Structures are given as structure tokens and as C-alpha cells.
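Revision sheet: C-alpha cells.
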Amino acid sequence: MKISCNISEKIFRDFTIFNILKRLKYWKSPVIFASILTLSAIICFVMKTVDGAVLLGSVLLIVGLGVPAVYFISFFLSLNKQVKMQNLNPPRCAYTIDILDKDDGIFVSNEKEQVTYRYKQVYHIYLTKECLYLFMTPQRAFLLPYNDMKDYMDNVIFILEKRTKNKITDLRK
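Predicted:
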């Protein structure tokens, strides 16, 4: 089954948000930072009778909420810039993937290169509402939009489930 993967701005944006914030969980550090400094600020506000406690609490609260806010704002601004740099409006075919029911059955090609993967090389597969994310390594993923494999989506998922064994996470619910 040959799939021409047409990547749009929305698909690229959704994947990046999924990969950075959900899969890699890079949101945790700023949230933990904000929680610690906010808790410290609350303690300072409770101890308002101590000289400088309210001022220290205010500084801790501003820093504790400001740094994570800057982190997330810069992440989303950078994402918007990256989306524009990819020139995905209108959507374009980034690569084609051929999925066959044999051990070395994943063929990926674009205008410049071709590569064949074995199913045992698959790191993980995520099924989202609009796209299948095929991770060959923790850093390398191929996006297979469902729109591009309408007629044989069930067959592709069946082959991947059969061949990759316990490496699929279904997030469509």
C-alpha cells in the first residue's frame, strides 16, 4: 500500500505539539518551577508580619509565573516560525511510504533519498485523531495523515499491529 504523505501546516503543528509537550513531556519542568515558586510565595504571604515577606512573595510569584509563561510563549512563537519555514501552505507531499506485510516492509522515499526499514526497527506508533505517527527512532518520525490513506487505513493499521507487537498507542479516544 503506497501512501503519499501530504503534510499540512495543521498536521505539522499538531505533531510538534504532541511530540514536545505530550510525548516528551517538556511541559513538566516549567510547571514544577511555577509550583515551587508559587508555593514559596504563598508561604511568604502567610508570613506577612515578617519584614519584606510580602515583597519577597511578590517577586517569587512574578518570577514563578513569568518564566514559564515566557517559556510557553516562546515555544509557540518558535513553532509558528517553523511552520512558515516548512512552506506547507498549500499542503505538500513530503515523502511516500510503502507498507507491505513482510519483515522489511516499510519503504520511505522522497525526492532525494530512499530507505527501507524492518518492522523490528519501529520504535513506536501513535494513532491520533487525524494522523498516524510512525517513530522509527525516538527522534525520527514519519507522519501518515489518514486523509492520504482513506481506502486502506484499516489494512495499514492491521499490518502495523501484527508486525510491531505492543508498540502502538491509540490516542483516538
